[in-house]
Specification:
It is a single chain. With 359 residues, the chain is mainly beta. It contains 2 helices and 31 strands.
């Protein structure tokens, strides 16, 4: 079964600052630079904006060869903002690269037929008069990247998952990549036999799985008739700890909460599902409600805490026999700092202008 949801790009600020980009719609060429050379442009609009639809509004990505993406045509920027209400025809500048599938209201399904670039052209009905157009790239899948939800949200590492922890329930994110390492989109993507969720950061496909006690976790990433096998060895020990960020230092005030995130390392990359524990100085106590979440689910690899008193010391993070020390300083409170940990699924993004709308 596949459930799909979108996580908007967000500036996510914790005690450790996980950096993110801002999600946006994609602006048509008229919105950004004006009427393209060689086109007759409509007087009905000054430009349009485009966003992906599945599972909900998200910025456009390059499409995997053989894949699909449902595109929403908008009259103003901002994810989930006003759709274009007028009638239009959708055409491709090169159907051998980008084919046009079904249309319904302001939504158009495009298909990545072959590698290359082509314009999705939105024109006045039964004419060739351009409302706006957007360039969409199609590329073949070079490989599949697998990482954890934590590592995918952080720009602190490009490391991928090299192993999974014995018997652990793991949060993983698989993405289709082109030859340059760019993420490719396909609305049909799913992990067969495991609940999975399309997410955007851009991430790919989030899914959960339970690792066996030994051997390997073998999965299949499927999209329509194509499959991409994934095999991750099972381990029960880490060789090191990766902190997020690597130079994590905590500086907070009395009464506030924070979190520290970590993953185990194995030869070749990170370990998914390794249990993370923390030992705190006397002036700090554990606070599970301070762990950052996605869609209400705590991010695996993070611990949360509350500062009870002024002090200076360190938090010891442990994964198996490996430990790492994170300096912590708690200062007197200067203003109320309350509230739950941020849930990334609640973050909002912005649309990208088309060529005409940005003039």
């Amino acid at each position: 079964m596949t459930t799909r949801r979108i996580l908007g790009y967000v500036a996510f600020i914790l005690i450790i600052a996980l950096p993110f980009a801002v999600a946006c719609t994609t602006g048509g060429e008229r919105t950004r630079v004006g009427c393209p050379a060689g086109e007759q442009c409509s007087t009905l609009v000054d430009g349009l904006y485009f966003s992906g639809v599945v599972p909900t509004a998200h910025s456009l990505f390059a499409i995997a060869e053989g894949g699909t993406e449902r595109v929403r045509v908008q009259i103003e920027p901002g994810l989930n903002h006003t759709a274009y209400a007028g009638s239009f025809d959708a055409r491709s500048s090169d159907a051998s690269v980008l084919d046009i599938g079904s249309s319904s209201g302001p939504e158009v399904t495009v298909l990545g037929a072959a590698s290359g670039h082509a314009y999705l052209r939105i024109v006045e009905p039964e004419t060739d008069i351009l409302l706006d157009r957007v360039d969409i790239r199609v590329a073949p899948v070079s490989r599949v990247r697998v990482t954890t939800l934590l590592a995918a949200f952080s720009s602190a590492t490009d490391d991928e998952i090299a192993a999974v922890w014995s018997g652990a329930s793991v949060q993983l994110v698989a993405a289709l990549l082109d030859s340059d390492g760019g993420v490719l989109w396909d609305d049909s993507l799913e992990v067969t036999g495991h609940p999975s969720t399309l997410v955007e950061l851009p991430l790919g496909l989030e899914f959960s799985a339970v690792a066996p006690a030994s051997g390997s976790l073998d999965l299949s990433l499927a999209r329509d008739a194509q499959t991409h096998p994934i095999s991750l060895p099972v381990v029960s020990a880490a060789t090191d700890i990766a902190l997020f960020p690597a130079d994590a230092t905590v500086q907070i005030e009395v009464g506030s909460t924070g979190s520290i995130c970590a993953l185990g390392r194995a030869p070749g990359g990170l370990i998914a599902g390794a249990p993370v524990t923390a030992t705190y100085p006397a002036f700090v106590t554990e606070a599970a409600d301070a762990i950052p979440t996605v869609g209400g689910e705590p991010i695996q690899g993070c611990v949360g805490f509350r500062a009870d008193a002024v002090g200076t010391g360190s938090v010891t993070i442990a994964i198996g026999a490996q430990t790492a020390s994170v300096p912590i300083t708690v200062a007197p409170a200067t203003a109320p700092l309350t509230g739950p940990a941020l849930d990334l699924a609640d973050a909002q993004g912005w649309a990208t202008a088309g060529e005409r709308a940005s003039e």
